[in-house]
Each structure stands twice: as structure tokens, then as C-alpha cells.
Specification:
6-stranded mixed sheet; 413 residues; 12 helices; binds flavin-adenine dinucleotide; FAD/NAD(P)-binding domain; alpha/beta
């Protein structure tokens, strides 16, 4: 029986644990937190084959520079004299090409589709009951400029075989009669689904616990010790862990841990916020409010508004201006709707682990024989959890991977 240690108990670490324990491995998950907060809990819960275009794309640098001057903008990069940040920025710039976007569409789409199927399979496991709704995703726009951009994307989506339909204002109102949309129209990506992340995380933790996965919470890994080309031990302040195989799934913290092994894995934290409301919104289909880049999700018993991408290092400070801009977008797109001050005060944040080219790192390290990377999923980590977990299991147990993993190589930079 292979002994596995997974560093990080977010969606990626837990999905890796799921498939490895299913294949008979003995699995320990180590997390520095109590595993009740962070990106894997505050996200919008979208499963997104529709998000096939990477963040690093032509025009993003220009847009980013404009947005940097606007404190309410949905995307913000804080300039810093930090070598890792400067390297990451250079790689982002180099990846922002048409050729890179074209090369990335297929792998991103395919891994999203694989993951959606795997989430559906999990519903067949007796103790794994959770919300998974396939009502699609509405890309709602207010301006002709945004409509034009969405038309271009929908054409690529159709070419890629994704199910997407155009809705004019009247059709959008008819589809969401109680939501009072104030938008020109929308593209409805019927290929997408949604979930309630916090509930799923609890269900998965319980399932894994019952199956014998060991959780070590409040245990921060402070060193990874190498003997030749293998990891020998990982240490927390109070414990030492040995295993046959180690998985680095520590989200935005992964590059700091990789440094213990002299490995460079470019990842920057991309902070995002969410505001939950129990008000009757009339929203039953998830949406993205395109101009504001705000995601809206009808979750179990509440609606979540989430957004912003702040690349400003590792911190969990809540910037009230950005929270207010999410709330303002909600009022602009839904006539008569307001997120209250109290709801805005309850806003929480999480850090997306953002790779510079918009593709995750999934694969064995070429430097360390018994280390597998599973990180860098940026805005798609929720969607890609099960596919990543499955691929990690296949890599470690030397099975044929369910899809081509070369685009996700941790050695690509
Ligand atoms: C507002 C917002 C909305 C989003 N919406 C979506 C969406 O709709 N769809 C989608 O697919 N994705 C979405 N995302 C992105 C998604 O949430 C992330 O990509 C995903 O949660 C990353 O998961 P992870 O397991 O890699 O990292 P995390 O969830 O950050 O987990 C990493 C874990 O590692 C632990 N850790 C770190 N360092 C150590 C250490 N030294 N020792 C032990 N443990 C350690 C941390 O405590 C943490 O629990 C969103 C993110 C945000 C913030």
C-alpha cells in the first residue's frame, strides 16, 4: 500500500486524496488551517467549460495597466520590487499572445469537461450527496462593446462543440422573470454547472474521514527535506511525516514550499471577494456580469456575489472599495436590488493560485522523484478539482492519464 502525504487540504488536495484512497493508498492530508476557509470555500462554485480562454491573452497587459489606476476595477496588480513577482509578470507578458490562447483553448476545455463528468460520478457514491446543477451560465452584458467581445467568444465556443445560445433582453427576462435584469442580453453557456463549495468541502471531508484518510489540521509544513532526488521528510512545528509520495497542493503558498527544494514554480496569489445574501433575489441561473466581472451564484439557501482579482502578494486584507464595487455591480445589473451594508461587512476573501500562463501545474517534478505538483489553477480550481485529483492518482500509480498532461507540466518555465 503506497503511503501518500498531501500538503494542502483545499479542493485540489481533497480531490487528490479522494482518488488515491479509492485506489487503495494510505493518505494523510496536512493543512495549516482548520480547513474551513480560503479560496476553496469562498469561490463562485462554477464548473466552467465555457472559460476556455486563459487570463494571459492579448490586450490583457494594456487593460491591466488601465485598471491599475482605478481603485474600483475588477483586476488589480500591485507593482512590487519582489523577484518572484517580477519573474511571474515577465512570464505573464510572454504568454499574452494569440498563439498561446489558441494552444490553451483545447486543454482548458477538455480538463473542464472531464472534471464535470467526474463531479457527476461522485454523486453516485452513497454518502456523497451535494448540489450539482446544470442550468448553465449567463454571460450578461450591458454595452455593445462587451456584446461584441462575447460574440467572438461564443463563436469559438460553438466551434469547440460547446452548447451556447444567444438571448436578447426579452428572452433573458423570460428566462429569469423574477431577477429584474438590467442588461442588453446574454450568452447562455448550457455546458456549465454550479455547486455550493462550502457544503461540498464538508461532504468530501466527511467521506474521506470515513474512508480512513488522516487529516492533520493546524499543522503548517515548515520544511521539506531532500535526500538525493527524493523527499525524505516533511516537518511541521510538532510532527515529522514520511511517505512514499508527496503532493504539493498548497494553493498560493506552493511556491514558498517548493523553494525548500530549490524548485521554482511561478504562482502569484490572486485575491477575490465574496458577499453572500439570503435576500430573495429571484436568481436561479448563475451569471457573470461581464463589464464588472462579477460572478453571481444561486447556492443552497443563499445567493453569492463574487469577484475581483487582486495580485498583491499573500494577505487577507479586505479592501472595502472593491467590496463596494461588487455590490454596485449587483445594483446596476438587477433593478431594485441592493446588497446591504451589513452583508457587505461580512464579505470574505480567498487567494487563487495564479500561474502566469493560465494553465495549472499537474505532474511529477523532474527534480524530485516522489513529488507531484497540483496547483496554479487560478480562476478554475473549483471546476478542475476532480480532474486534477484523478490525474494526480494516475500519475502516482503510473496509469495512463485520462488526458494529455503535457500542457500542465510543472517544468514548462
Ligand atoms: C472569489 C473567488 C471566486 C472563485 N470562483 C471560482 C469558480 O467559480 N470556479 C472555479 O473553478 N474556481 C473559482 N475560484 C478559484 C478556486 O477557488 C481556486 O482555484 C481553488 O480553490 C484553489 O484550490 P487549492 O486547493 O489549489 O488552494 P486552496 O483552496 O488555497 O488550498 C490550499 C491549502 O493549502 C494549505 N496550506 C498552504 N500552505 C501550507 C503549509 N505550509 N502547510 C500546510 N498547509 C498549507 C492552506 O491552508 C489551504 O487550505 C474562485 C476563487 C475566488 C477567490
Amino acid at each position: 500500500m503506497k503511503k501518500i502525504v498531501i500538503i494542502g487540504g483545499g479542493i485540489i488536495g481533497l480531490c487528490s486524496a479522494y482518488y488515491l484512497q479509492e485506489s487503495g493508498c494510505s493518505v494523510t492530508v496536512i493543512d495549516k488551517s482548520t480547513m474551513r476557509s480560503g479560496a476553496s470555500f469562498v469561490n463562485a462554485g462554477f464548473l466552467t467549460p465555457s472559460h476556455f480562454s486563459p487570463l494571459a491573452a492579448p490586450g490583457m497587459i494594456r487593460k491591466g495597466l488601465q485598471w491599475m489606476l482605478d481603485p474600483k476595477s475588477p483586476f488589480y496588480v500591485k507593482p512590487r520590487l519582489d523577484l518572484d513577482f517580477l519573474k511571474w509578470s515577465w512570464l505573464f507578458y510572454k504568454s499574452s499572445t494569440k498563439a498561446h490562447v489558441q494552444q490553451s483553448i483545447r486543454p482548458i476545455k477538455n480538463i473542464n469537461l472531464l472534471s464535470t463528468e467526474l463531479y457527476k460520478d461522485m454523486l453516485n457514491v452513497t454518502d456523497m450527496q451535494f448540489q450539482l446543477e446544470n442550468k448553465g451560465l449567463l454571460m450578461c452584458f450591458k454595452t455593445p462593446e462587451a456584446a461584441e467581445e462575447e460574440i467572438k467568444l461564443s463563436k469559438i465556443a460553438l466551434k469547440e462543440g460547446l452548447n451556447v445560445q444567444y438571448l436578447n433582453k426579452t428572452e433573458l427576462q423570460k428566462l429569469q422573470p423574477k431577477a429584474n435584469y438590467n442588461a442588453l442580453g446574454a450568452f447562455h453557456y448550457l455546458c456549465d454547472s454550479h455547486m455550493t463549495p462550502g457544503n461540498f468541502m464538508e461532504t468530501l471531508k466527511k467521506h474521506l474521514h470515513q474512508k480512513g484518510v488522516i487529516f492533520k489540521t493546524d499543522q503548517e509544513v515548515i520544511s521539506l527535506e531532500r535526500k538525493g532526488d527524493e523527499i525524505h521528510k516533511v516537518r511541521t512545528k510538532t510532527h515529522t511525516f514520511e511517505a512514499d509520495e508527496f503532493i504539493l497542493a498548497a494553493g498560493s503558498w506552493s511556491p514558498y514550499l517548493a523553494k525548500h527544494l530549490s524548485i521554482n514554480i511561478p504562482v502569484q496569489a490572486g485575491k477575490g471577494y465574496c458577499i453572500n445574501t439570503k435576500q430573495e433575489t429571484g436568481i436561479t441561473i448563475p451569471a457573470i456580469l461581464v463589464e464588472a466581472k462579477v460572478a453571481v451564484t444561486p447556492m443552497e439557501h443563499f445567493t453569492r456575489f463574487s469577484g475581483t482579482m487582486e495580485i498583491a502578494g499573500i494577505n487577507h486584507r479586505i479592501n472595502p472599495v472593491r467590496v463596494q464595487s461588487i455590490a454596485a455591480a449587483a445594483s446596476k445589473f438587477y433593478t431594485g436590488f441592493h446588497l446591504s451594508e451589513a452583508e457587505q461587512k461580512e464579505a470574505v476573501c480567498g487567494l487563487r493560485p495564479v500561474s502566469p500562463d493560465g494553465l495549472p501545474y499537474i505532474g511529477k517534478s523532474s527534480h524530485i522523484k516522489n513529488l507531484t505538483f497540483a496547483t496554479g489553477h487560478a480562476m478554475m480550481g473549483w471546476s478542475l478539482g476532480p480532474a486534477t485529483g484523478k490525474l494526480v492518482e494516475e500519475i502516482i500509480l503510473e496509469k495512463k492519464p485520462s488526458m494529455d498532461i503535457l500542457p500542465f507540466s510543472p517544468d514548462r518555465f
